[in-house]
Structure formats: structure tokens, C-alpha cells
Amino acid sequence: MLRFGWLATAMLAAWLCFWPWAFAQEPETPYQPPNWEAFFPDDPAGGKALDQLFAARHSDRRSADQRLAIVRNGLRRTSAPRNRILEWVGNKFVWEKQPEHPLALEIMYHAADGRPEVQHYRTRYAAVYFGLSVTKQKTPRMLHALADLCMTVDDPETIGRIAWGYADQQQALVAWLAPYLASADPAVRSKAYAMQRVLCGEWNAYDWSKRWLAQQAAQFSPEELSSLQAILETGDSTARLTQLEDLQTSSRWCAMPESCLPQLALAARDSDARVRMAVARGVADRWAEPGAPAPATDLLLELSQDANPEVRRTAVFEGLSQWPTPSDAVLERLLEVVRSEQDPTLTSRIGLALTRNRVQAMAVLERWIGSTDSARAVWAHGYYPRVAGGPASIEPKPEAPPALAYDWLGDWTLEFTDPAGTTRTERLNLALEGTQEPTPHFALVVRLGDQTARDLALGVLEGESVLAFEVEALGNTLHANLGFSGDRGLGSARVAGKGELWVLRAARDH
Which of 46, 140, 282, 403 could form a disulfide with 74 if both were Cys (CB 3.0 to 4.6 A apart)? Predict the structure, then answer.
């Protein structure tokens, strides 16, 4: 049986009268972060009382109030394992308990203090694991404290447990990262961005930790940095490629300093597409985070228009489509890629990027709709609902189409030949909506059978009228490109979701 002196008993009784008022509800006061040493008193006698309680925890019959008051009073000076004590508190008074005990939550809150000067108490992880991650009472104060904790510690177990416990409150939790994301310190911004992705389930905490540790180990010495910059600036293609591939293999890209961006820009103009590809992949991997330096963005924009299609795709797929805070120039480039590319995997990834930045992307599309570039205006008007979820409030007023476009208005027979050699035909009709006369306010309509095509783009290429469109035909979604010359047309159609390429031949009906 535990025994107390009259003074200790009186103090304990006073505390038990006080704590329900103090902890029963979240106080509407300025945020107070966890404070281990302010909350847990330095009481040797309290430590001994907790030792005795913990040893008899399974048979002790005192009230929850009494036992938790002893835990608070003795946690600093106890000789029992503090993490085991908190495991018992969490399992007994918090996890799956109705109601959860408010003093138990308060103990867990302050035991989760992540400041380096209190880590010798070794309570942080247990407090998160058995308390703050499993409580049903996830208050704004807890969210704030746990966001701060993620920025303070680099332990993937703690961060991963927080991500698991707050999966249903991701946005509320990451909102507290805002000051860190806006920090003037690039290292703080980088850590905050990583925590945002971990807490939102995009990254695994353990994978992030490995990357972070690699980054710390991969820092360049002054001699290494000088050698790297010299190779990127003046080395031949073989030397550049070897250096860039070594960086990727050794995971040292993650430590690439911004001071190397001018030399990387030179390497990005190397005659060897493999060098340009390595630059695109490395820059995308290194700087796809908030506050990315403008030269890194400019470099990917340049590579997204490279002569090599694989270099272009890498710059967009791994880089620009993943830019967390894209500029209008980045969004315009992404929209241009959607217009011109027939790769459904790439355009789908771009679609996600545009949706993440919906308001900004809508503004870009509205500028396009109101522009004098007729083809782009019509395309933007058709694509707008995919981003905005509804039609645009403005209509395009494009100029008259290219003169050659009038040469192929009318009825055509379109022949499809699949990779197996099977040929089928459909009726193709091209018309100007509402009028057959040239007008500055036209709308081209393309019908294949009983289906109306969408995402139209038209122009003149090497003297031929060229039409691009998407349509449902023969049981498939086709992304078609068709060039016209006289009474004949020739082109191809990629089958969405299958990767097949069909040959298209058109003949005018007379």
C-alpha cells in the first residue's frame, strides 16, 4: 500500500480539484507549445511514488485522477522506464477509451516536446505513438504542436506515426506548416515541403529519411564543387554524362547547390541528348519543391522544348508537372504540351498539375480564350471545363481560319487500318458552324459518323492543312492527326489506353 505525508496528500488533493477545470476543454488562449520541464515538476518524492505506482499498476485501485496526478508529478524523477509508463497511460486512459482522460492527454501533449534539450527524457515517441496519434480529440493545439514537431525532429518513426494518426485531418495538419513553407531559409522551406508530402501521404517517412540522410552525407567539398562546375562548363559530352550519371547513382544530386545552375544550363545545351536528359532528370529531382530557384524553372522550360522527344517528356513528366508552385509560364507550357502531345500518361499527369493549381490555370486559359490566336482560343475554350469543372464564362472570338482550311470543308470517307491490317470506314464531315462563308467569328465542327470531335486544333504545315482532334469511334477513344492535300488525306490515330497506332486515309466524297 502506498503511503503519503499529510503535506503531499494535501497538495495532491488540491491538484485533483484543479486539473478537471484546467484540462477538460481546449483553452481559448494564445498557443502554448509542449513544455516538458514546465509541466512535469522536479520532485524526488514524486518520482518514488510513481515507481511504486508503476510496479503495482495492474493491481492499483485508486481513481484515474489520482493515478494520473502521480504520473505527472513523478515522471521527471522516476527510475522506471518513462516510455513504458506512457505506453501504460495511453493504453489505459486514451487509446479506444470513451471518454479519453483529459489529464492523460495533457501528459502526452507535454511529453511530446521535441526540443533537443529535453530529449534525454526519451518520452517523445511514446507520447506520440500511444497518445497524440490515437486520440479522437485532435484539437488545433495538437495539430500545431505536431506540425512543429515534424519540423523539429528527423525521426521517420515519429513523423510516420503522425502521418498515420492524422490521415483524416491532413489539410488541417499541414496548414500549420505555412510559416515554414514561407521561410526565407531554403533549408527550412525544403524540410517543410518534404513534411507536407509525407503528411499528405505522397511520400513515405522512411523513404524521405533515407533521402535526407543521403543529402547530409552528400555535401560537396570546395574541391569537389570546383571540379564538378568545371566538367559541366567545359567538359565534352562523355565527361559530362559520366559526371551526371555518377551523381544520380550516388544520390548526390540531392545536395546540388544553386551555384551550379549556370553550369547545368551549359550542359543542357550539349549535343548529346543523353546529357540533356540527365540534366532534366537531375534538376527535376533536386528542385521540385516550393521556392525553387528561377534558373531551375527556366532550365526545365528550355528542356521541355528540346529537339529530342524523350528529353522534352522528362522535363515535363518529372519536372514541370510536379512543380509545387508553378508560374504562369510553367502552366502555359503544360497547356501547350497537352495541345500537342498524344501521350495519355503525360497529359493525365499534366491534368493533375492543372487541377492542383486550378484558379491559376483557369486564368491562363481565359487569357488564351480571349486571344487573337484562333486555334488556341478554340482549343482553350474546349479544354477549360476539364480544369474548372464547368464552362468558361467567355467565348472565343478567333480570326478567320487559314485559307487552306476552306479547301477541305465538306464530306469525306475516312478509312481506319489497325495494326492487324483490318480496315473499316466512317463518314467524316467538316463544316463551319452556322455559315459556310468566311467570317471572323467561326466555329469549326468535325463529325465522325454520329460523334462530334473535341479538342480541335488546325493549321498549315509544309503547305498542307493539318487537323488534330479527339473522338469516340469504333469502340475506342482516338487521338487523331490528319493532313489534307487536294482530295486526299493521310494521318494516324493513337488508341487511348492501348498504345495502338492506326493508319488513317481520307478521300473526298464527290
Answer: 46
Q: Give the residue, 400 or 53, on which the prediction is more confident.
A: 53
What residues are paired with 465 via a beta bridge?
460, 484
DSSP output for 291-310: T--HHHHHHHHHHTT-SSHH
Q: What is the CA radius of gyration of the chain?
A: 32
Sorted by sequence, the CB contacts under 8 Å of residue 5 that are 6+ apart come out as: none
Angle at 496 between CA 495 and CA 497, to 5 degrees: 115
Q: Cis peptide before 99, with omega less than 30 degrees from 0?
A: yes
Domain edges within the chain: 6-213, 229-388, 403-508
What's the CA gap between 421 and 252, in Å, rounded?
50
The set of residues, in sequence order, having a beta carbon less than 8 Å from that of 432 and lying 6+ positions away, is 409, 439, 442, 443, 444, 445
- The helix (run of H) or strand (run of E) holding residue 83 is helix 82-93
User: In this structure, what C-alpha cell is assigned to residue 172?
Assistant: 488541417
Please state, in angstroms and as integers, the Cα–Cα distance from residue 149 to each residue in 15, 40, 75, 146, following that order: 29, 19, 21, 5
Residue 273 CA to residue 268 CA, distance in Å, equals: 9
Q: What are phi and psi of 203, to 5 degrees?
A: -120, 150
Nine cell digits for residue 18: 484543479
pLDDT, tens digit, 9 for 90 and up, residues 227-263: 999 999 999 999 999 999 888 766 677 778 888 999 9
Distant-in-sequence, close-in-space partners of 431: CB < 8 Å, separation ≥ 6: 409, 410, 444, 445, 447
Contact call for residues 85 and 67 (beta carbons, < 8 A): no
Sheet holding 464-473, edge to edge: 451-452, 444-448, 423-432, 410-417, 501-508, 488-495, 476-485, 464-473, 454-461
Which are the contacts of 134, defined by CB distance < 8 A and separation ≥ 6? 90, 94, 95, 96, 165
Q: Is the domain defined by 229-388 classed in CATH 1.25.10.10?
A: yes
Which of the pair, 289 or 140, is modelled with greater confidence?
A: 140
- Residue 3 pLDDT exceeds 80: no
Instruction: For residue 476, name the pLDDT band (cuts at 50, 70, 90).
Output: confident
CATH topology of domain 403-508: Lipocalin (2.40.128)
What one-character DSSP code corresponds to residue 118?
Answer: G
Cα–Cα distance list, 275 to 262, 265, 280 (Å)? 15, 11, 9
**Residue 331, C-beta contacts closer than 8 angstroms, at least 6 positions apart:** 354, 357, 360, 361, 364
The three cell numbers of residue 139 are 484539437
Residues in CB range of 164: below 8 A, 6 or more apart: 133
Identify the CA nearest to 280 among candidates 330, 244, 232.
244
Question: Dihedral (C-alpha) 15, 17, 23, 29: value to the nearest 10 degrees?
Answer: -90
